[in-house]
Amino acid sequence: MPISTVECCDCMDYMAKFPDKFFELCICDPPYGIEDHISKGGGSHTKSQCKFHQLYSENHKSWDVRPNQSYFKELIRVSKNQIICGGNYFADIIPISRGWAIWDKVTDGVTCVNPELIYTSFDLAVKIFRRPQGLNNGFMNKEGKNIHPTQKPIQLYSWLLQKYAKPGDKILDTHMGSQSSRIAAHQMGFDFWGCEIDPEYFEQGCKRFEKEASQQALFVPEKIIEEQIDLFKEAQP
């Protein structure tokens, strides 16, 4: 079984525990710091056009605080490569890269849903993941039962691991939220370390992980395991 160890703590305190380049890959989704822009009606995200602004005041939490350059400096210290969701919001404080990825949410004509730009430190051609926004807990599912207001689908993280990770890589997520990244890493056999500062999100995320892990142990057929093995026989970056 792969290692999966997590803590409820500040990400800077968590990363300080690890030596330089301990992780082969960090996949994270830090807060973008766009709450004020959205709530005041910036761009296409206006209150009259959509209700996304409500996500940033959920339960009166003030979580949408953009990390500063010290965070990214520490992230680069502890990991050999980095994948940062919403990387365009940090373009002024992260290294230049040509190896971006795109989550195409297949929402042509929907003005309040944009593709997700994902920064990677890999020197590779741009890669595109196509999956509708709301599919499998993609932002807000129909029941409104997402753990985190900007919850991303497990399938996105699985795709990122497939494209950018190698067998045996140690994976870090400094902003776990709903723990989609942790679930994807566990399903694909990667050792994983992660942290989440909010106790409520952390508790709910851990329950979600345990549920998904127990279901995987009971119901994953041999065919899927064989397909995952074949996947890593392909050429890696």
What can you tell me about this protein's structure?
- The protein is of the alpha/beta class.
- It contains seven helices and eight strands.
- The chain has one domain: Vaccinia Virus protein VP39 (Rossmann fold).
- Strands 1-8-7-2-3-5-4-6 form an eight-stranded mixed β-sheet.
- Strand 7, helix 5 and strand 8 form a beta-alpha-beta unit.
The gist of it:
The chain has helices spanning 11-15, 35-39, 69-78, 154-164, 180-187, 199-219, 222-231; strands at residues 4-7, 23-28, 79-85, 101-104, 116-120, 127-130, 170-173, 191-195. The chain has 237 residues and is α/β, with parallel strands linked by helices. The protein has a single domain, classed as Vaccinia Virus protein VP39 (Rossmann fold, 3-Layer(aba) Sandwich), CATH 3.40.50.150.
Q: How would you describe this structure in keywords?
A:
single chain, 237 residues, alpha/beta, Rossmann fold, 8-stranded mixed sheet, globular
User: Strand-and-helix sequence, N→C?
Assistant: EHEHHEEEEHEHEHH
Specify the CATH homologous superfamily. Vaccinia Virus protein VP39
Q: Can you tell me the residue ranges where pLDDT is under 50 for at least 5 consecutive residues?
A: 41-53, 137-143, 221-232
Percent strand equals 15-25%
Count the DSSP helices. Answer: 7
General form? globular
Main sheet specs: 8 strands, mixed
Query: What does the radius of gyration come to?
Result: 17 Å
Q: How are the strands of the largest sheet arranged?
A: 1-8-7-2-3-5-4-6
Structural class: alpha/beta
Could you report the average pLDDT, rounded to the nearest whole number? 82
| CATH architecture assignment name | 3-Layer(aba) Sandwich
**Helical residue percent band:** 25-40%
CATH topology: Rossmann fold
Number of strands: 8
- CATH class assignment: Alpha Beta
Overall tally of domains: 1
